[in-house]
Amino acid sequence: MLSIFSWLKASKNxxxxxxxxxxxxxxxxxxxxxxxxxxxxxxxLPKILNxxxxxxxxxxxxxxLLATIGLLNNLYRxxxxxxATEGGTYTEGLIGSPNLINPILATSDVDRDxxxxxxxxxxxxxxxGNIVPDLVNNYxxxxxxxxxxxxxxxxxxxxxxxxxxxxxxxxxxxxxxNPEFKSPxxxxxxxxxxxxxxxxxxxxxxxxxxAPFLSIMTxxxxxxxxxxSIPVFGTELAELNKKPIGxxxxxxxxxxxxxxxxxxxxxxxAYDQYHLNRPYIDELVFKFYPDFDIAAAALQNKNVNGLIxxxxxxxxxxxxxxxxxxxxxxxxYTALFFNPNNNELLADIEFRKALATSIxxxxxxxxxxxxxxxxxxxxxxxxxxxxxxxxxxVEYDPNVAKSILDTLGWGKNDESDWRQKDEVDLxxxxxxxDQDENIKTASIIKEAWExxxxxxxxxxxxxxxxxxxxxxxxxxxxxxxxxxxNSSSGPYPFWHSSQIKHPGLNLSVLTNKDIDxxxxxxxxxxxxxxxxxxxxxxxxKLLAEHFAIFLxxxxxxxxxxxxxxxxxxxxxxxxxxxxxxNIHSWYLKTKRQLSx
Length: 596
Description:
This protein has 596 residues and is an alpha+beta fold. Helix content is 33%, strand content 22%. The protein starts with a helix and ends with a strand.
């Protein structure tokens, strides 16, 4: 019996195996004969499916589609990166109005800002404050550091597409040196001559070594073929000062004036042939405001994306979430400068010392700029070559100040609020620009001096008049003002006796041979070691003579649009225009690109 059952079981398995093989063969045959459903057959599927089956099929297809899209998107993101791309318009507010948008005539921040974007120099300042090549491939310097030879790039063109040659450099230098041209840069080129070697090479010869020479070469170059026919006496009236043609990253597009003829806005477009690569942002628009009150309101109301600068006192007013503030390091410092020509009391070193010992710098830092900076004792700031934390001014001590004034014969009596000598009141005039932090600083100093018995008259001048009416004619006794000391040019333009008259920048109208000698040694130093020694000597003598009272070094606060990218390397500015040092790397738009 058992054998019969075994035989039946084996026979059954053979039958089932044979049936499976038959079915598999039929499937294989159908596939081989390509008898899969055609598109026309698939389209009939909805007709033979019931409602429930249709829903299930739709859900299945949707899940499949979403899963496929998600998979592909994930793969793309894993194998791609976000990169900058061209496009967009960025609007910034400036204080003042354009006048001479000319790199060798500009005197205002507005003109210098626009000239920086429109013109290129042989050298440029990068985002870290270093001097690097711009229009040149390379340059050489002889052993005595008196001969500089520059080889121009071969891909440099003016905005009208004419090539830039050595002739343009020679023309620009000659215009600067011509006294009839009245360039504020004329003194910087004393003792410097330029020679054309060939179309692509120009050589500069210096009568003596000048370490910061390369910083002078950052000056924008003018196109000779457009300027040569304009007479020197007609330079300031030239249309090219309002609608310039340069070789910078941006070119002039248009301007809009109000009914009084003042420029309200100024539009620049990216220059496609810019030698350091076309900028990403297509268009820059600048709007001009008379003061920071109106400019800050424009930023808050989103009429502009950013501002040239935001004084500390306005920070709390900006509630616009689309704005971020970058805090940049700057060689700008605020100090009191003396002009004994307008008050002979200031010629007395002991009187200047009395004024210095009566000023509480820490209070000024706290109350005037809300600690947004640091107290300083000299024009050589922390982080700069020559800075020495041991070099300090006199300590704040009103009692010492009183003692000095008593010794000088300025007595105090009950009949007057002010100290007197020979029945004449002790009076000084303190001048500053009409800006909140300056006015607060002046008020604190006035309070301190009047507590000593020094009658202090405040003179507040609007920003658009301070240069023409006060700085140029040196029409002040004591001036509270901010100076920006270029780390490359050094302290010479600000403290040498040859610079006490305009266009020099020495605002303390005092002279000292030892200080002059130190400044000359700094200019001629061939290495940082010898320059450091002279810088230390310069500071020590400057403080010993009380040539000025140094107050604070404030942070440069630069408000920009939150969507503005590419500013990560921007940490330092010598002058406000330096914020554009890497403008061709800024961007508003992005795209994804497959990674290599």
